[in-house]
Amino acid sequence: MTWRENGLTRRLGLGVPIVQAPMAGGWTTPRLVAEVCEAGGLGSVAGAMLPPADLRAFVREVRSLTSRAFAVNLFAPLPAPSGERLEPWARLSDLAEVPAPRAAVPFEDQLAVVLDERVPVFSFTFGLPPLSALSSVDTADGVFVIGTATTVAEAVALEEAGVHAIVAQGYEAGGHRGTFLAPVERSLVGTVALVPQVVDAVSVPVIASGGIMDGRGIAAARALGAQAVQLGSAFLRTEEAGTGPEYRAALGRDTTVTNVLTGRHARAVRTPLVERLEASGVRPPDYPLPRLFLKEPPLLVGQAGAMARALPARELMAALAAETDRAIGGISGVA
């Protein structure tokens, strides 16, 4: 058995244990998901911000481009925002008036689409959503469920809830933190420290995430006991990603974990706006309201974003596999 094959890859029919992270906000496109799947990995639809009709259309477009398994990712339901601190936040954001909040997309309606479209893999972050709706299809051929943990305690809670695999999200990862049990400040564990502890604490497959950009990182994650890796920032410069020139150029800049962009902690590029909002000392409105005050989408990226490559997704997947072969061969002394 090589690094490419294990129980998780066999269960999902993957050629390589590489998961493309779901990146909400338009950066994950149907073509990106499909191209990763066609290259042997698991592409992920970022469904969290999509109304049910748009999510259904996205899923069907992916299906028109690939016959392989793919995932749909949703955010676990969160308490409704209070609507407090909107006016001071508008002034800090240089807006003349407070933008009108948009109605939240009901998680139950999104999950209904996942089930109705018979999506093979369902992943989630931000907590523990109600999984009872999946029980009727939770069979060997039913929905495969993946949860996200940032600590060992969260991983244990996810396994007890019945997930089939766990993404161990290290501190280096870009985008929103999946933390849900303890404050974010006490849940910032690096990938190298987090993955082996989670592997030792649970019996389900672990997927390493955070700072993994090439074959060296994949080899390291497999050596730590992860059955697969999840890469997000590595795909932001691919031809199929929905990122524009400004986003692609920003991938090499300093990042920070902050809650001023969306109301929930996320790793993003440190911009003058981020620094000004943080320096104000004003607590941002509840998630996801601060996003309404942004003139441009937040530049969410991991600590190793500078290593992202401008390649077609299939070529990147092939390069990752070849690099991992070389890295593992070098470690074993057969390269």
From TrEMBL:
<dbReference type="Pfam" id="PF03060">
    <property type="entry name" value="NMO"/>
</dbReference>
<dbReference type="GO" id="GO:0018580">
    <property type="term" value="F:nitronate monooxygenase activity"/>
</dbReference>
<keyword id="KW-0285">Flavoprotein</keyword>
<keyword id="KW-0216">Detoxification</keyword>
<protein>
    <recommendedName>
        <fullName>Propionate 3-nitronate monooxygenase</fullName>
    </recommendedName>
</protein>
<keyword id="KW-0503">Monooxygenase</keyword>
<comment type="similarity">
    <text>Belongs to the nitronate monooxygenase family. NMO class I subfamily.</text>
</comment>
<dbReference type="GO" id="GO:0009636">
    <property type="term" value="P:response to toxic substance"/>
</dbReference>
<dbReference type="InterPro" id="IPR013785">
    <property type="entry name" value="Aldolase_TIM"/>
</dbReference>
<keyword id="KW-0560">Oxidoreductase</keyword>
<keyword id="KW-0288">FMN</keyword>
<dbReference type="InterPro" id="IPR004136">
    <property type="entry name" value="NMO"/>
</dbReference>
